[in-house]
């Protein structure tokens, strides 16, 4: 269980735009960065994230060919949707326009339960 109960209050939400050229883009960003206090490689963290996502609470997809996994995750219990990446020895939870704090908090709780170390949580925003 987590030793701390971090806040997943969302200070700002990105705005979804649809360019005429097609696709979807987001203006602004809020990311919660979960860093293990024990030294873990990106590969170890990717395996941990996969184990958590494979739990029956989530639907997910890694649908883009990028140099790192990028999961679009939906928590079936809360209906929260957010993106999950692993980068620089940390798990990143990317807030989408409709993401609520409860889904992020539940994901953090599961990461803590499935791992053998404490975690720190930082929130990073960029709204240019």
From TrEMBL:
Disordered: annotated span: 1-22
Name of the molecule in the record: Uncharacterized protein
Organism this protein belongs to: Halosimplex rubrum
């Amino acid at each position: 269980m987590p030793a701390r109960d971090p806040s997943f209050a969302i200070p700002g939400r990105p705005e979804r735009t649809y360019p005429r050229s097609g696709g979807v883009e987001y203006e602004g960003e809020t990311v919660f960065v979960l860093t293990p206090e024990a030294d873990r490689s990106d590969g170890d963290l990717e395996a941990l994230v996969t184990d958590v996502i494979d739990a029956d609470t989530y639907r997910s997809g890694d649908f883009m060919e990028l140099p790192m996994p990028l999961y679009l995750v939906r928590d079936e219990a809360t209906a929260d949707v957010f993106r999950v990446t692993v980068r620089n020895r940390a798990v990143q939870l990317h807030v989408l326009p409709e993401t609520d704090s409860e889904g992020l908090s539940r994901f953090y709780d599961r990461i803590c339960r499935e791992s053998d170390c404490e975690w720190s949580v930082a929130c990073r925003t960029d709204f240019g």
